[in-house]
Amino acid sequence: MHRFYVTPAQIDGSIIGIKGTDVNHIKNVLRMKPGDEIVICNGQGKDCYCIINKVSDSEITAECRFEKDTGTELKARITLFQGLPKKDKMELIIQKAVELGVYDIVPVMTKRTVIKLEDKKKEEKKLERWQAIAEEAAKQSGRGIIPVVRPVQSFKEAVNSAKMLGQGIIPYENATGMQNTRQLLGSLKEYDSIGVFIGPEGGFEEAEIGLAMSAGIQPITLGRRILRTETAGLAVLSMMVFNLEE
């Protein structure tokens, strides 16, 4: 069945209203009519199995017959703190991170970040674009939620945010001991929230690693090879999914 997303505000008891671009897609592309079946995700991990009861130019309404857990979310909520990369690499990182199960994404300005988002309007435009990519990736991968791309934070702000999470890890090229990495990743099942820090091109400065460690964020190695920023996050997230997936 075709699947669509709504916000809790669009749900009134068993009646769900779909508005926006999905109306045209349902009405004119899929040519669905009253009586057809669709699945509507409430954005909070629940899928509603519905029957369309009204189709108009501005809204589709459907009645939920029953609901069940989407079943695609990880046990732990993962926050990706991503050092801002150059060009359009952030778009790829967001897309793949959402597919791999992250809960939210925080763009981070570090000492070695090349790109600068000093103009508030430029930042808002970027965030709007990144959020659209997150939504599309969530729909494609059948997520039960649509991960949020948060406003840009400084590295210090990101570290303070990570203090609120159960565990934090930071892949670092000078870290050693793959066995320590295995043990730490294997212990992540104990936490309901995890922060992952990925540096931009050029990685983190030693002072930033020191600040992270002082906040309890654990440095790990991802092997003997130096990974690009767009590779490092996907590598560690894949390892985490292997340990967290039920």
List the helices and strands and how they pair.
Blueprint (H helix, E strand, L loop, with lengths): L2 E3 L5 E2 L2 E4 L2 H9 L7 E5 L4 E10 L4 E10 L7 E7 L5 H12 L3 E6 L10 H21 L7 E2 L3 E2 H8 L4 E5 L6 H9 L6 E6 L7 H9 L3 E3 L8 H16 L2
Parallel strand pairs: 1-4, 7-8, 7-12, 8-9, 8-10, 11-12, 11-13
Antiparallel strand pairs: 2-3, 3-6, 4-5, 5-6
What does this structure look like?
This protein has 246 residues and is of the alpha/beta class. It folds into 2 domains: 67 residues, Hypothetical PUA domain-like, domain 1 (Ribosomal Protein L25, Chain P, Beta Barrel), CATH 2.40.240; 168 residues, 3-Layer(aba) Sandwich (Alpha/beta knot), CATH 3.40.1280.10. It is built from 7 helices and 13 strands. The strands form 2 sheets. Strands 7, 8, 9, 10, 11, 12 and 13 form a 7-stranded parallel sheet that branches.
Quickly describe the structure:
It is elongated, with a radius of gyration of 20 Å.
Quickly list its features:
6-stranded mixed beta sheet, single chain, 246 residues, 2 domains, 7-stranded parallel beta sheet, 7 helices, 13 strands, alpha/beta, elongated, Ribosomal Protein L25, Chain P, Alpha/beta knot
